From TrEMBL:
Belongs to the BicD family. InterPro entries: BICD. This is Protein bicaudal D-like 2. One of its GO terms (molecular function) is cytoskeletal anchor activity. Keywords: Coiled coil. It comes from Acipenser ruthenus (Sterlet sturgeon).
């Protein structure tokens, strides 16, 4: 038969184990809750970043379209000016020929 002291020791040890188990269980629940909270926070942060970058991509696509339009307009203007420059060169050549012919006629008339 066990003595009162042994029973008390066993009871105290059992109570300590129960208390330790309770604390461990409580800590486990807290860690799990913290993990879930952190995961939720990361998911929200990720969703926020994704939305930001999607918006940034849309803005850059719009800017790219605008720049392509600017480039197309600049190329058209360049083509127009090149054509105009060619016309002017041709007119200058004609005027130079006319001036040369006029000079030749003047010299022939005097000569």
């Amino acid at each position: 038969m066990s003595s009162w002291s042994e029973q008390e020791t066993i009871c105290n040890a059992s109570n300590k184990r129960k208390k330790a188990f309770g604390q461990a269980y409580s800590n486990h629940k807290k860690v799990a809750a913290d993990g879930e909270s952190r995961e939720e926070s990361l998911i929200q942060e990720s969703a926020s970043k994704e939305a930001y970058y999607e918006q940034k991509v849309l803005e850059l696509q719009t800017e790219l379209k605008q720049m392509r339009n600017v480039l197309a307009n600049a190329q058209s203007e360049n083509d127009r000016l090149a054509s105009l420059a060619q016309e002017i060169r041709e007119k200058i050549a004609v005027l130079e020929e006319m001036s040369s012919a006029k000079d030749d006629l003047g010299k022939a008339a005097l000569g």
